[in-house]
Amino acid sequence: MTSKTVGPPTEMPNVARVIPDPGRAQRPGRRRHWRQVLRRDWQLYSLALLPLIFFAIFRYLPMLGNVIAFRRYRPGGDNIFDNIFGTEWVGLRYVRLFLSDPTFWDVFSNTLILGTLTLLFLFPLPIVLALLLNEVSNRYLKRFVQSVSYLPHFLSIVIVAGMIMQFTSVDGVVNQMLRSVGGEAISFLQRPEWFRTIYVSSEVWQTVGWGTILYLAALTAIDNDLYEAARIDGANRWRQTWHVTLPGIRPTMMTLLILNIGTFMAVGFEKILLIYNPLTYPTADVVSTYLFRVGVQSGLFSYAAAIGLFEAVIGLILVVAANTISRRTVGASLW
Amino acid sequence: MIVAEARESVVQHRTGPRRARPTRGYRVFQVVNAVILTGVVVATLYPFVNIVARSFSEEHYLIMGEVNLVPRGFSTAAYKYVTADPMFWTNYRNTVVYTVVSTFIAIVLTTTYAYVLSKKHLRGRGVLIGVAMLTLFFNGGLIPNYVLVSNLGLTNSIWAIALPNAISVFNLLVMKAFFESLPVELEEAAAVDGLSTYGILWRIVLPLSKAVVATMVLFYAVSFWNSWFSAFLYMDQQDLWPVTMYLRNLIAGATGTDMTAGTIAEGDQLQVAATIQSVTIVLTVLPILLVYPFIQRYFVSGVMIGAVKG
């Protein structure tokens, strides 16, 4: 290109021969290399084919499908492209719409509150339970407690929702206790002020036991010599826990904290969908349930996709931020 | 003398140096700890026992709020009612079929991809891993997925459940870690003997991986068995539902969650639903409870592999 303007036309073939030569020599080489690679490993690549098709269709196509947040969507057209990606660009129209939607801000703050409560309880409680289990000297007792506490993790969310309803219903156990101390029965699931308590305690019930697994593994990996040394230095058990045990499981703690923060916005969507109702919307309705109603039930796909994209971006920012902070401060990070 | 020392160090090693010389304060702590852990066990099991008690009680006692841990006015009427409903069995059978087919597809895709990713010499391996890892941090979201699956014409079919969830990246990483830990020499020897890559995977690698494959089957099977949301989104014919949707409808009907269906039940109808709910919960949870003691440790080991390598 430059030779054309600088040098006279007669020089061109010469220059062209000298300059692009390495590129020309390299490219066929690389191509030959790929041909070799393909000949050697084509069977391996062929095994990757179906999984790659899966990722392309069911993971990456929906990612691209988020463009409907910026495009008008008319369902029921003949063109499958229009049906997935919308028909025309409308810019930030839907973003502006939801930012000025008061309901959006209500569900947004509900999400932040529920997310914070979940983090406050579901992050530290498994650590506490793991530490308590670690102090049990009877192996069979320890294993029994573990087995029982893992159990709720294996239940369908629908079953958990059903149990919550039975437990908190007017004739349920909680109200029996209330009545036995002279209180009046409360229909908990119809009361907005009870929703957060019910949600968080049921999450605790279902996830805390299972959450101890990784901590227990980290605890067994702590070198016994460290305890010995601490004991010789005169540390009592409490100080041993504080100065040896907790630093020993810190990498695990940070990893799980980052993961927890990553799911902060995606509070238990399915569970809320099962146990909330219009009466408890003031506290129970979160971003994901709102966009479900707006999108799937009312068919406002673009509007709901815009909200969903916003939620996903916040989630991504939170994970990256948590990871960076953790790496800078304690040196533990996911990537 | 040496033997005694050695024995002591063995004992020390097993119980740990922390167990030496418990102080008075520590003994108090152990008692408190035992009480707390007993509390955890009781709190975990309480709802199960309560549900079973309710399922065997007479409605009359339920309404009065008198059923706690023991069934009152023992009755199996609700069981007879639920098991006599052909739709319950249709949906139960659907759950079994969906679980088997979806798990099969998931295992095939996860195993093959994990095997490819475990080959360190493979060109483009980094890209292939990246393709999977990226989906951990960013996924399409509910609406684009819904739009896609509906437009692919998968609604009201098993494919709406099986295909979108065919590979869990977590399980993929567990399997990849396992395959990487297998000795390379075995596969090299098989290759020298003229086995193709397919042959190596099928006849050498998979027979060595039975344990991890079984673990993955359990992971997928439990998640498909428990799933309801895909069916909720993509199936509007009741005879196609899994049993979790059967239960979800009972719940929604009884509490007025499903306002759109206009089923705010009368007082006594609500109570009928309550016994039936308990029975349906018991019958749905039963298979999980029965196999749980046997599969639990596989889950724990699977999580460990994934955590160490992922």
Describe the fold and architecture.
- The complex is a heterodimer of chains A (335) and B (310).
- Mean pLDDT of chain A is 84; it is low at 1-25.
- Chain A has 335 residues and is mostly helical.
- In chain A, 36% of the residues are buried.
- Chain A has 18 helices and 2 strands.
- With 310 residues, chain B is mainly alpha-helical.
- Chain B has 2 domains: 20-75, no CATH class; 85-309, MetI-like (MetI-like fold).
- Chain B has 15 helices and no strands.
- Chain B is globular.
- At the A-B interface, helix 3, helix 4, helix 7, helix 8 and helix 9 of A face helix 2, helix 5, helix 6, helix 7 and helix 11 of B.
- Chain A: Keywords: Cell membrane, Membrane, Transmembrane, Transmembrane helix, Transport.
- Chain A: It comes from Rhizocola hellebori.
- Chain A: Residues 108-322 form the ABC transmembrane type-1 domain.
- Chain A: It is a multi-pass membrane protein.
Task: Summarize the entry for a quick read.
The complex is a heterodimer of chains A (about 325) and B (about 300). Chain A is mostly helical. In chain A, about 75% of the residues lie in helices and about 0% in strands.
